[in-house]
Specification:
This protein is an alpha/beta fold. It has 4 helices and 3 strands; from the N terminus they run βααβαβα. A 3-stranded parallel β-sheet has the order 1-2-3, with helices on both faces.
Length: about 150
C-alpha cells in the first residue's frame, strides 16, 4: 500500500509526468474518497456497488481514513484542475459515485476544459458487465464505445 502520509503537506507527488495525457476517459469515477455526497449515502442496497462495499475498498486503499481528505487521494478537492486533459465522463443514476462524476464534469467545464459528460439516469454502476442480459446496458455500452472512438479523430 502506498504511504500517503509522507505527502500530507504537499500537493504533488515527488515524480512528475514527462507527457501530459491527451484525454481522460472516465467511467463512473470516484474523485472524493471522503464519501460525503448524497449518492454515496443513498445507494447502499440492492446494487452491484454499495456504500458498504466502497467503504471496504477505501479501508484497503488508504492507510487511514484521514488520508481521504488529501487532494492527492481525492482529486475533486484539489483547488486547481486547469491542467486537466480533455475529458469524457460517464455517470449513472443508480451509483454511489454518481455525484463525484457530475461535480468533476462541472468543475472541468468551469475551468475551460473540453468535457463531454454523459449521464444514464436509468443505469447502475457496472452496467457494462451485464450487456449479455440487458438490452439497455448493451446499447449504453455501444454509445460509450462510440464516444471513445471520437477521441481518435
Amino acid at each position: 500500500m502506498f504511504n500517503w502520509t509522507q505527502y500530507i503537506t504537499h500537493t504533488q507527488l515527488p515524480v512528475q509526468s514527462k507527457v501530459k495525457p491527451q484525454f481522460q476517459f472516465l467511467l463512473y469515477p470516484m474523485f472524493d474518497l471522503q464519501g460525503l455526497t448524497e449518492s454515496y449515502r443513498r445507494f447502499n442496497k440492492q446494487l452491484l456497488l454499495t456504500r458498504d462495499l466502497m467503504d471496504y475498498f477505501r479501508q484497503h486503499y488508504l492507510n487511514s481514513l484521514d488520508e481521504a481528505a488529501l487532494p492527492l487521494v481525492s482529486p475533486l478537492i484539489t483547488n486547481d484542475i486547469s491542467e486537466s486533459p480533455d475529458s469524457y465522463i460517464l455517470t449513472l443514476g443508480f451509483d454511489p459515485l454518481r455525484d463525484d462524476g457530475i461535480e468533476y464534469a462541472v468543475r472541468l467545464k468551469a475551468a475551460g476544459i473540453s468535457t463531454h459528460h454523459e449521464h444514464y439516469a436509468d443505469c447502475m454502476h457496472g452496467f457494462i458487465s451485464v450487456t449479455a442480459v440487458s438490452a439497455r446496458a448493451k446499447q449504453a455500452t455501444h454509445n460509450v464505445a462510440m464516444a471513445l472512438n471520437k477521441f481518435n479523430h
